[in-house]
């Protein structure tokens, strides 16, 4: 009889293994790539005041894998107040983002603008949502007002959800705009999720940020009711691939006006290089050095680098390692810091308000007063922005200084006092 089973030879095994691995990888990818409803539930205030312009809400765990959050910022409220960032009246979707607006009266356009940034769970680090789409549902109107929705997203495509739409859609670059053409609402106080004639869909391959504008055009005075909008978003997350390098330790120590950075790592087979990044405020980092892995990548390798910080005006310097894979993926180490203060700066100056907008008030210690004391305003690179003299106190104009982190450095002979400040616009 004919052989119905494959004969496994030594030469055939590698090919079968490769096919099996390929099929497994395709299975994993296809599973991850299936778009799912993004669940906008139970928002918390990240910053600002609830229901006010400038407020940022966090919606946690949008996806079933629990890897993505959304930060929703209320950019502006034009002719409306925000009644609820995510209302769910009877019959409405429990996963869609459903802002509810209240008209403040008057003719013309009334709307809210929201910027949605997708981030890694529990952080503010942007991350893409793959196969993203948003269906704008329940667009209708009345003899007093007509609803509209728009979205701005990278390289969008759009489509009607019905062959007999009751919305008119147009596109201008990255903005897609839909306006109701029906003046007979079918959803009552909620959203009719079964009426596809009042919907349109917008898609984008892998955005990290989208901007939504929801609102209505008011034709007649006297209407000041609440209006509900439904943004039903879908997308998927791809599981992060763990980098080959395994960090065993990372330290930063100050000695002889240098910061000694040391670390150990193993499993560096797929590692391209290390970036040493430095910051003076633990927010804005710059590259201080770039190092390549050792030739022997299978064992434990030790690395060191000394960062000369002579004449630095910073009080604290932060360091982190950026480990970059050969295909461009990367991850960060734990952040380490060193303090540059010593006994000579024990006499502290006072600088207020901090943060500052217009005028910074500076006062010096009692035992420094009525002496020749010089002061400088420095940026984070140690460059001098302003110079001033002070006997007891001084007022430094800051309105012409760009926003950012700075340092007030005051010198009394051999004694030095440094105070970090933040300038805001």
From TrEMBL:
<dbReference type="Pfam" id="PF18962">
    <property type="entry name" value="Por_Secre_tail"/>
</dbReference>
<dbReference type="InterPro" id="IPR026444">
    <property type="entry name" value="Secre_tail"/>
</dbReference>
<feature type="domain" description="FHA">
    <location>
        <begin position="338"/>
        <end position="390"/>
    </location>
</feature>
<dbReference type="InterPro" id="IPR000253">
    <property type="entry name" value="FHA_dom"/>
</dbReference>
<dbReference type="InterPro" id="IPR013783">
    <property type="entry name" value="Ig-like_fold"/>
</dbReference>
<protein>
    <recommendedName>
        <fullName>FHA domain-containing protein</fullName>
    </recommendedName>
</protein>
